[in-house]
Amino acid sequence: MRSRTLSRGRAFLLAWTLLVSVAALGRLAEVFAPAPSWPPIERIDLRTAPLFELTLLPGIGETRAEAIVLDRVRQGPIETLEDLLRVDGVGPTTLERIESFVIPGGPLGGSEGAAGRGKSEHRDP
Length: 125
Description:
Layout: H1 2-31, E1 44-45, H2 51-54, H3 62-75, H4 92-98, E2 102-103
Parallel strand pairs: 1-2
């Protein structure tokens, strides 16, 4: 009878060890899983993106994101990707990194420029 109890104890210990090992391996798989692929599903609109969205862009940390938001307040919306060059700390390399992740102008990425915005084409008959 004693050997039967011992084998149940060993079986329980073995089952418990396997369960803990599988759980640990699953956690390791989560930790070492590859990062989500870029580009994000939707592009980020540079004219309206809040601070936290700007920090998702490669090469744009919190300091640069704050500078972009401040620039939009002071200088107006970012109409073209090149408008980012007026932001302190943003150079040509940063533009190359983020160009496929952003919408520089309107909803389709086009830009009318500041002169074409806000003017209606009203013609008198």
